[in-house]
Amino acid sequence: MIGYLALARETFDVEYAKSKFEKAKSLLLSLSPDAIGFDNLITNDADADSALSFFNSNDFEKVFLFQTTFTDAKFLLNFAKTIQRPICIVSFPEPRTGGRLRLNSICGLNLAMHSLIKNSIAPDFVIMEEDDNINKMLFSKFIESQNESKETLWDIATITDDQADFDYSIDKQTIGIIGTRPEGFDTCDYDSNEVTSKLNVSLVDLELEDLFNEAKEIEVETIVKTKSTVSSYLAGTEELVQEEFDKSLSIFHGLENLKDMHNLDAFAIRCWPETFTEYGCASCGPMAMMNEKKVSCACEADVLGGISCNILNQMNNDPSLLVDIVDVDKSDNSLVFWHCGLAPISMAKEGTARSGIHSNRKKPLLHDFSLKEGEITIFRVSKAKGKLQFFVMKGQVLDRPNSFSGTSGVINLGDNSAHKLEQMFKGGLEHHVAFTYGDISDKLIHFGQQMKIPTYTI
Fold it and tell me: What percent of the chain is predicted at pLDDT more than 90?
């Protein structure tokens, strides 16, 4: 017998998520009429406990888990460890409307895959398509499978040009960690001893209160001057709630102060929910402004993500950015790289840069624009499968409108981008990847060799 359940987070569009769940559930029941499931969207701990009790009380062989929106991996990992049955995670693309990212389901899939694979659980997954005949085929493949999971291995990355210019130096770096990662974000885990001994990075632990206290002391004249500068390159700042806008700019100056105070080279910041709920603004815009200065700011206290960006910054003349993969379109051979609004202004497609508010939390400041076209290098200091490694590949940002509010780019990874995304997810890659403009892939591979860290690609 087949079981099913669905996850959601209430800060996303829950009604839209329900509609996706109901349609996918109907498709499943057409293939397996005796399937049993937990029919409420699981959005909190009480729902999670009820769902786990339901599955512990019923007999089933396999489970479809519908990842209707982005969620952390806390419940899913506990569920998988408890039931010990084959799992197929189903995620949902959404139209690239230029508006709110209503579900962010594929990013949730990415985070879930990393967490489960790191814990030696190898789930299957389906990304729903427009054609239900294809979806039925994908569902049936899991239902009829013999539960033989195969490990997905990435290719060893090799230098393509032995005569490349490897004239770079990476001195000992210091990362400021502000707060702790959100619960269930295994993708943001790190081993401090490994970071210091193998990556030559020092860590300075700070609290969110340290940032908030610095921000509160910023003088009004400083805020006014910065506001004028920001308004010169971001349209629409006059439409923002000015008190919240000012608070956001004070966060930028607070970060500057902490950088100078502790001699920091980059940050990993617990950006939500407290920046919204306790301080009253978004930290995305301030982090974008720091990114423009090549002082990388990784959200969700992602230390290895921050180190990934910092390495790119030292090898390249352009800033770097940490992004989520939020959409894939087989027919277009493309993915979407997105984040709430922390891309540096130099990455903006000409004429598209606006100020914005956070799509879920409704507070400023965000950068809102489409990424400019061009060749990029994608990189991650990864703990896929629990082992320290580098992941590197090349891509292209296409000349497209902004897919979702915030900062986003439509990305081509060469032939069969959708398959490459599948290999990234099945290999256990984290839900944050870094990129910079230009091709510095050989430098990164060379750096991995120098650091004696295995380096992989697809």
Answer: 93
C-alpha 358/C-alpha 365 separation (Å) is: 7
Closest CA to 53 of 83, 20, 13, 94: 83
d(CA 176, CA 272): 17
Query: What span, in angstroms and rounded, lies between the C-alpha atoms of 238 and 405?
Result: 18
The dotted CATH code for 2-144 is: 3.40.50.10940
> 216 falls in which pLDDT band (50, 70, 90)?
very high
Decide if 427 contacts 152 (C-beta within 8 A).
yes
Q: Which two tokens stand for residue 320?
A: 């770097």
For residue 383, list its beta bridge partners. none
Of 96, 130, 127, which Cα lies nearest the Cα of 336?
96
202 neighbors 196 (Cβ within 8 angstroms): yes
- Quick: pLDDT tens for 153-165: 999 999 998 777 7
Burial class (CB in 10 A: 0-12, 13-18, 19+), 81: exposed
Question: Hey, what CATH class is 173-457 in?
Answer: alpha beta
> What's the CA angle centered on 55, arms 429 and 34, to 5 degrees?
100
CB-CB neighbours of 242 under 10 Å:
12
DSSP annotation of 386: G
Q: Is the peptide bond before 364 cis (omega within 30 degrees of 0)?
A: no
Q: How far apart are CA 233 and CA 255, in angstroms?
A: 21
Ordered by start, the domain boundaries in the chain are 2-144, 173-457
Give the tens place of pLDDT for each residue, 231-262: 999 999 999 999 999 999 999 999 999 999 99
DSSP 362: -
Beta strands in 360-421 (DSSP E): 366-370, 374-382, 389-397, 407-412
DSSP code, position 187:
G
Contact 390, 382 (CB under 8 A): yes
One DSSP character per residue, 290-335 reads HHHTT--EEETT-HHHHHHHHHHHHH-SS-EEEEEEEEEETTTTEE
Identify whether the C-beta of residue 323 lies closer than 8 Å to the C-beta of residue 104.
no
